[in-house]
Amino acid sequence: MAKLKALALLLLLGLAWAVRPGEPLPDFALLDPAGNLVTPKTMKKPAVIVFWASWCPVCRAEFPGLHKVAEETKVPFYVISREPKDTREVVLEYMKAYPRFIPLLASDRDKPHEVAGRFKVTGQPWTFVVDKEGKVVALFAGRAGREALLDALLLAGVELP
Known about the structure:
β6 and β7 (136-141) form a beta hairpin. The protein has a five-stranded mixed beta sheet. Strands 1-2 form a two-stranded antiparallel sheet. The longest helix has 17 residues, at 57-73. By secondary structure, the protein is of the alpha/beta class. The protein is built from five helices and seven strands, in the order αβββαβαβαββα. Pfam families: AhpC-TSA.
């Protein structure tokens, strides 16, 4: 029970520390699979940014539902591995099952796990919903439920089907 309480406290502290709703996205410069530079200014918005890791069982369980929302809404879902050991090859192989996701990869300027640090992400999955101005409207630490994610997309100005 004490371990569970400590874990809950760490999660709450992480949420308090992370980029919060109303704040702009931290600066980053990562590459999409085609080699195009993606930054907060160049990314399509509204959008969803998901920090994940290839070994994460919660991410594996969550991705099919997130992918379905991406398919239904046509909102870009940018996925960034916060695991330094997730190579380009590992990420691209993993993402074959999720063609609507846009994996963001290391560039000459940034590494994905460093970007996670700028967002102050302390675990995975962490999901940020971003409006057309590039401001965070919602944050989910852990699994993002379908209805809550759809509500956040509405807040971001997405017209749902």
